[in-house]
Amino acid sequence: xxxxxxxxxxxxxxxxxxxxxxxxxxxxxxxxxxxxxxxxxxxxxxxxxxxxxxxxxxxxxxxxxxxxxxxxxxxxxxxxxxxxxxxxxxxxxxxxxxxxxxxxxxxxxxxxxxxxxxxxxxxxxxxxxxxxxxxxxxxxxxxxxxxxxxxxxxxxxxxxx
Length: 161
Prior knowledge:
This protein has 161 residues and is mostly helical. Helix content is 50%, strand content 12%.
C-alpha cells in the first residue's frame, strides 16, 4: 500500500492543503493512495497526479469529501480585519462548493467587475466568466480571484448524517 507519511515532502500542498489535512485526519499513519482512489472511483496514479499538480476543480474536491461521508463548504469572513481572521470568524457561505453564486453575487455587489478581477489576477476575463457560468472552478484560480478581492477562505468538512 502506498502511504504518504509526510505530505510536505511529496506534495506541495499549497492549493490543496485543506484537502490533504482532511485526508490525513482519516489516515493518520499516512494517506493511502490506493484506498483514496478506490473510494472516489479512480486510479492511484490519478490521485497522485492531482496532489502532485496541487490543483483540481472544486467539484472534484467535493467528490473527495462525499466519498468519505462529508460535505465540503467554503466560508469567507466579511468585514473583518485580516489579522483577526480565524476559522471561527463570522462567515458568509457559498451555497456549496460547486455553486459559485455567493462569490459572483459578492463581485456584482461590490466595486469589482469580472474585468477588474481579471486585470488584478492576470487571468483572462473569459476564463473567469466561464468558470462562474459553469459553476465550477480550479482551486488555484479560485485562490487567485479571492486574493485579488482580499477575501480569505476557509474550508469546512461537515459530516453528513
